[in-house]
Each structure stands twice: as C-alpha cells, then as structure tokens.
Design goal:
two-stranded antiparallel sheet, about 75% helix, membrane, mainly alpha, cell membrane, two-stranded antiparallel ribbon, transmembrane helix, transmembrane, globular, about 300 residues
C-alpha cells in the first residue's frame, strides 16, 4: 500500500489525467475486459443445473486473475513506479470527464430545443426507450444518470482506491462492469448474473451513502437530507435510492416517476422535491459531481498534510 501522502498524490494525479485526457479512445482495458466477460458468459451461461454457481465461477475467473496481476505489478515496482502505476490504474477506473461529456451531449441540444438530437444522445447512456421521451423525460433520464454514475464511476472508484489500493479499485471496476453486463432480471441473467449483481451491491453500499452525504453537503442540504431519509427506501435499488434521492433533493428537482422501457411503462417512485428536470438540471448534476470530487480530494490532501505534520 502507498503511504497516505502518496495515496493523496495518486488521487490528484488520476483526477487531473482524467480532466486532461479523458478515457482512452482506443485500447481501453475495460473494452478488452468486456470482450472477455462476453466470452465467459457465452461458455458458462447455458441451460443446465446450478446457474448461480456457474455465475459465481464466471465472476471469479473474470475478476481474480486480473486483480492479482494488477496487484503483482504494483508490488514488483519501486516506490516511484508504484505511484505511477497506482495513478494510471485509478485514472482508467475514473470517468468524471466521460460523465461530463455524455451529460453535456444531452443538455446542449435539449437547451437549444433540438429534442431529436437530445433523445439520440440520452439513448446512449440510459436503457429507456429514448424515442418515447419528451423534453422532461430526456432531462430526467440524463440527470438521474449523472447522479447515479457519479457514485459508480467516480466516488466508488476513489473509495476503493483509498481503502484497498490498486487491487481494490481494479476489483470494484471489474465487478461493476460485470453487473452492467449481467445484472439483469430477465430469463437470460436472472440466476447467472445474480452473484455479480449482489457483489456489486455489497461493494457499492458504503460508497453510495458517502456519495449521498456528499450531495447533501454540497446542495440544498435540508431538502436533500429529508428526501434521502424519506424516499430512498422506496427505490428498487438499495444503492441508487440514497444517491438519487439525496441528489434530487440537493438540486431541488423532481426525478423518478413513470418511464418507458422496452417492456413497457415502469412505475417508479418520485424522488426529490422542487421543479421539473431540464437541461439546467443536467448541468447542475454534473457540477455537483465535480464539486464533490474536489471536496474528497481536498479532504484527503488535508488528512495527509495533518499526518505528515504529526509525525
């Protein structure tokens, strides 16, 4: 493990790299991992007995070797190389700039009245039937995505890096990717994807609540706390509920409600309190995630400085 000072420096370097470079356009490791996960699923997710156990085997085969390799590389490097390796791994796990780009790609045409273009862009980041969404539906979908992905792709990555270093952030990112690929409640993945989904829920439980706390501190605090306390449990996801309830309250916007999916209209609880979502709420959600990231970095740097001072 890195020292607290080196850990803080690695986090700052990773966030700056994400800000300057964004996600690699080619040869992103998660793209290759997605191919590997697809091959494992095709081989193991077949009709037959014990689908949950085959799902567990698939998760272990996908996650453990790559996490071990990342950890081994870290151990074999000298201290300076460990800092560089940790910073690069965390950068590849973060997606703050990617989140910003996806959100702005919806907000800009929506604000200009170009609903067709906004629908096209929101369809890239949510699983809803984008062509059935009106202006408010597009804004709600994108705002919810910014808040939830801020938890998954930013704060959870920082959390697991702080808690368990390189192996922690790699394991979390891989499990989160498997959940995105296999964590569906349909005939194909209901049992096979259960281990990935439950493991992702477990790994995101504390980061989600820290994210909700971050949104609460940086937004309309009283409203965010009230929405978190009274609305989160109504959501079908144990982690998305606190994040989106607190986030909606922090932004003083109303999210949730009925939404069109391929299987029909899904009735969802209402989250938040305030006005309807709009292009402005998308950009406000992006800004909330950004401010939260800098708050986490500032707190980490302060802790590292205090630890150095007390030595």
């Amino acid at each position: 493990m890195l020292s607290l000072t080196a850990t803080a420096l690695a986090c700052v370097i990773a966030v700056v790299l994400d800000r300057l470079l964004g996600e690699p356009r080619r040869w992103h490791p998660l793209v290759g991992f997605g191919w590997l996960a697809g091959r494992l699923e095709a081989r193991l997710n077949r009709p037959g007995p014990a689908p949950v156990w085959r799902g567990l085997m698939a998760v272990l085969l996908a996650v453990v070797p790559l996490t071990a390799v990342a950890a081994l590389v870290f151990v074999l490097l000298p201290p300076g190389g460990q800092l560089v390796w940790a910073s690069v791994v965390l950068w590849l796990a973060l997606s703050l700039r990617g989140l910003t780009e996806h959100g702005e790609a919806v907000a800009i045409p929506l604000a200009a009245g170009e609903l067709a273009q906004a629908r096209c862009q929101v369809g890239r980041i949510v699983s809803r039937q984008a062509e059935a969404l009106d202006d408010r539906g597009v804004a709600a979908a994108a705002t919810e995505s910014m808040l939830e992905n801020g938890a998954d792709a930013v704060f959870a990555s920082l959390f697991w890096f702080l808690v368990a270093g390189v192996p922690g952030v790699v394991a979390h990112r891989l499990v989160n990717t498997l959940d995105a690929m296999w964590g569906y409640r349909n005939d194909r993945f209901l049992y096979f994807g259960r281990v990935a989904a439950r493991l992702d829920d477990a790994m995101n439980w504390l980061p989600a609540r820290l994210t909700a706390l971050t949104y609460t501190l940086l937004g309309q605090s009283a409203t965010a706390w009230r929405c978190w306390r009274t609305q989160a449990a109504c959501w079908d996801s144990p982690n998305a509920g606190p994040v989106m309830a607190a986030g909606a309250g922090a932004l003083a916007v109303t999210l949730g409600g009925p939404a069109p999916y391929a299987t029909g209209i899904k009735a969802r609880p209402v989250l938040g309190a305030g006005g309807p979502p709009s292009a402005a709420s998308i950009t406000a959600a992006i800004a909330l995630v950004r401010r939260g990231t800098w708050l986490w970095l500032a707190a980490l740097v302060l802790l590292a400085a205090m630890a150095e001072f007390m030595q």
